[in-house]
């Protein structure tokens, strides 16, 4: 098995663990780990720029925001958490099978031609990309982050009065 | 059509005014309104006369035109038109007698005339009946003729046809209707019963029963059909929901109980719907 | 200066969040109101204000590639009006000042997102700013933090994430085929090889994502809960403009002039449209809660827009755009009515609230205007858009779709009349506990929106020639 396959499978496993674990803090760690694995995969696919951003934003910044959010929440009893997980499992476990079967069906049915990666491998420099081509999106992303933080503060911070 | 709009609306206004003031449209309970609601009565008289085709109101002129055309087509149509006219006259005589004449069922003092806002349109339409009747020629020339075009065949027929025989027959029919009503009212003792015998006529009674059951009313029939149709669809919709929920519950026994306990589970159904929808879109759009 | 639509609200947002206490009060409301009013005014009066010279120099620094065409202008106008109404309603219905301030901030973020989304010419930017609006709306919906609101938010969140997956996958595929993912670039890719499987797959994926955002059947699961559980002012915003810009605008822009659709695509879009119209109409009939009923009615009306877009002729596109605008106005109006009912009686359950016509004259009259417009009665605005859509369907030969759409219109009238009668016109046994009237703000917004509905309906030929026909040039 190639390293890519190992990485993908472990990505999947870590993601499942993130969803199924009962402690929120562990989920956040799992999310960061998923992002880290994803950034490694990106690096191996010849996209170092994306890998750097993935790592810094998702595994770094987002985890900080998540941990701040969780610090505003209260603990839930262990029995309830276990009950929640059990019921989540029962509801969700058939879903991946359906998706995989449907994806196979579609792949056969659609007969996708082999993909030509020529158009995208000509990567401009990071500076050019961010500041000349995509500066509107940059503004958007900044506002999204602000909005997210704002949302956390609005929804989770308790009124001190 | 124009005339029908005018006098029919006027009649409905008078009926509405009577209903508003007396609180009911049941002819059994109404009576003697001509004294307490004189304006309404006046307008009713005019409109009822117009619809029956009494000269010189507008209904007379349009009916004469139709009689003339019907006779051109064939005697059967003419006879049918006359019979219709006869019954129209009888029914409006009955209505007027029952509602406006006779002993008032309530004390006269408690029923007042309708408010001015309701009287105004009634009066306008009644006056229009008179106006369109007396001045029917210019109206027809100005409004109707341009619509029908300069068709040479219709051109000459817009003049009042010179055959006095038809007018005589019409007047005879009207007098016959009046006599019928008068006699029947005398026999049965009240205006409202003047047309009772029709209810017992051989074919007509069956039609009356069906009409009472509203078989002829497309709205009623449509509503009943719609009600059943909507019920069927509601059933289908509920059964689709049931299908999904029992599919999930079919995997384990306890899941259904837990689904009911905790709200958040429901969104899975929507996600499943979306995924199925996405699958169908891909299949059908990419053919 | 086009960027001013983005930069002015952003500047206000930054300013409002400076740590000065006096900014937390009414001034936030007035400044935001002024910004939105400016937006509405600018879209009507084209020569830019003198402020624009100052912003020119700022604009050189932020040289965004935005484009303003007839469609964007109409969208900006709609965004301005609905956001303004939502702001006024919020001022009247949200209780604590802190929450009002939060609402204003989030509203500004949402407006920034929507404005940029309609101005951008790049599909990825479109996605980013739609997501920005969605983030602001998630927080807005959960603002009152009761269990139902959070549940509605969560459902919207879950399905929105699914939509993001589809849209991002689609953008990735487009990126794969052509390195340039602006609208022009994608359109060129289609003109090179329209039947390329990857392009069609990307279009289909994007369609799935956008349909979830629109809330059409079978992707509609989040709509009833989200619309009905959100606080009153947020319902107005979401139903009136956010769903539209997030989903329907993308449909309008991309599926008419950027993507090239073949017949099977068109059939799929039209089928989804017609199914949404009919099923949502039937679902609305049985609802006991006003807001849920209005949300199903929204799904139904957006189905009309999808139907028209699927049809593809210029007339149908015009009908879709007009219906977009009309629906934004009259649906917001109906939700403001629901807000006033909620304010007066504390509930939107029709089994409880009956016979209010006498106590709420403005609300009942304007709700009549809104509902008749939804049903498509002349001479209100809804009639014109429905007429154009159905006429376009018939004239392009799609008689089955046209007849079903026509019949569903009768259905719309039925459930609305039923609601009107039971809520407003039956003899009332209900007396409200509070003797207070409806706040002036709510009355004002109701009257404003109703006036727009009537004015657009009555003056439609004029508006058509002045504002709307230019939209047809968008179709290539």
> Biggest sheet of chain A, open or closed, and with what strands and sense?
none
Which ranges of chain A are low-confidence, i.e. pLDDT below 50, for 5 or more consecutive residues?
Answer: none
Report the helical percentage of chain B. Answer: over 70%
Number of strands of chain B: 0
Q: Classify the beta-strand content of chain A into a percent band.
A: under 5%
From the alpha carbons, calculate the radius of gyration of chain B and give it in angstroms: 30 Å
Helix content of chain A: over 70%
Taken in chain order, the helices and strands of chain A follow as HHHHHHH
The Rg value of chain A, from CA coordinates, equals 20 Å
Helix tally of chain B?
14
How would you briefly describe this protein structure?
Chain A has helices at residues 3-20, 24-44, 48-71, 78-92, 94-110, 126-133, 135-156. With 161 residues, chain A is mainly alpha-helical. Chain C is an all-alpha fold.
Describe the protein's architecture and organization.
The complex is a heterotrimer of chains A (161), B (287) and C (476). Chain A is mainly alpha-helical. Chain A has helices at 3-20, 24-44, 48-71, 78-92, 94-110, 126-133, 135-156. Chain A has a domain at 123-161. Chain A contains seven helices and no strands. In chain A, helix 1 packs antiparallel against helix 2 (24-44) and helix 2 (24-44) runs antiparallel to helix 3. Chain B is built from 14 helices and no strands. In chain B, helix 4 runs antiparallel to helix 5, helix 4 crosses helix 6 (116-134) and helix 5 (75-100) packs across helix 9 (164-188). In chain B, 76% of the residues lie in helices and 0% in strands. The longest helix of chain B is centred in the last third of the chain and has 34 residues, at 218-251. Chain B has two domains: 2-215, no CATH class; 220-285, no CATH class. Chain B is mostly helical and 287 residues long. Mean pLDDT of chain B is 71; it is low at 151-160 and 247-265. With 476 residues, chain C is mainly α. Chain C has a domain at 275-476. Chain C is built from 19 helices and no strands. Classes of the chains: A mainly alpha (161), B mainly alpha (287), C mainly alpha (476). Chains A and B meet through helix 4 and helix 5 of A and helix 13 and helix 14 of B.
